[in-house]
Amino acid sequence: MIERAIHNTKYASIDNEHNMRGEHAKVNYKKIKTSNTTKNNIFDVAIIGAGFAGLSAALVLGRYLRPAVVFDAGKTRNDITKHVHSYLGLENMSPRKFIKKAWKDVLQYRSIQVIKQKVQRIENCNQYFVISTDRDEPSIKAKYIILATGVTDIKPDIKNFSRIDGNGAWHCPHCDGLEAAGKQLTIIGNGNDGGIISYAKEFLGWTDNIRVFIQDDHHLDQTEIAEAKRLSIDVVESDPLIEVRDDRRGVSHHINLLSGSGKLYNTDVIFYHIGYNVQTQLAEQLGCQLDEGFIKINNKQQTTVANVYAAGDVDTDRHYVVLAVASGAVAAISIYEDILKRALENS
């Protein structure tokens, strides 16, 4: 009865026997009106973002046979990082390999299509949403939205920093803090956020050899200075780092850092805490409420706007691959349950 109800309503999907395919499924705009994955040129779900959360949601929706489209704007946040950590069964897999495998898994399902474009605008038309991209292509319509737009990290403004970013320098202690175990750790941050010493304290389970560089003109307050001194955390103010001189190819395997005064420091590992920008522009267009800068959601990943969900780093300050994947799955399950409920009510 349930299967008959969901397939006989306006939420009808494709036939299961035709649901598997191996090719990369890009949307053909010229043929989209006759596509057997949509009805009336409307997808069930549009997923904005093709990182860990977005692809997790797409995989679940594919297995539910839901017509969904994934908008992929490019590289993931941790694309340059060498390894994913604390993901059971996939420890030390590179993010690039992870995403490549995820795409292969997702695109087994014919109901999932992909548009490699950046979404610029989403308009709420009550019964569906209209999605426009940064290219001159027809708009896409969907009944539900999953915002998996993530965050973008602010990188230290230091010459040659890109040489070590993701391979000697990281930002997430929960993901990569083990790299600092028993080593000389340099932390790069600003004094104006009031949290650099708290950030440094997160590494004390791995190392007690920590030096913090304050890169801006703000000084730590007396409470922070006292706390750093109590914990033997060295703080360098008024002499910001200006250049990375990577010596790890030599015998020492150290990273050499040049300060503004001309002093040369060496370290084994760098972590930076400059901040990030939460990509909430589309959520704000739709009228979604924010909570401390992140998209506000409930336990089903639903935002404060009907039929709009959010998943991944965009809705929490706990940025972890395994949590992003879980949130994408929860969003997809919640949408399917809502689709099923409506289908049964109308059957």
Can you walk me through this structure?
- The protein has 2 domains: 2-152 and 276-345, FAD/NAD(P)-binding domain; 161-273, FAD/NAD(P)-binding domain (3-Layer(bba) Sandwich), CATH 3.50.50.60.
- Strands 1, 2, 3, 4, 5, 6 and 19 form a 7-stranded mixed beta sheet that branches. Strands 8-15-9-10-11 form a 5-stranded parallel beta sheet. A 3-stranded antiparallel beta sheet has the order 12-13-14, with no helix packed on it.
- The chain is elongated, with a radius of gyration of 23 Å.
- Residues 7-24 and 28-37 have low confidence and may be disordered.
- Helix content is 23%, strand content 24%.
- Helix 2 runs parallel beside helix 3.
- A hairpin with a 4-residue loop joins strand 4 (119-124) and strand 5.
- The chain is α/β, with parallel strands linked by helices and 347 residues long.
- It has helices at residues 2-7, 52-63, 95-106, 173-176, 196-201, 222-230, 281-286, 321-345, and strands at 42-48, 68-71, 112-115, 119-124, 129-133, 140-147, 151-153, 169-170, 185-189, 210-214, 234-236, 241-246, 255-259, 264-267, 269-273, 276-278, 290-291, 294-295, 308-310.
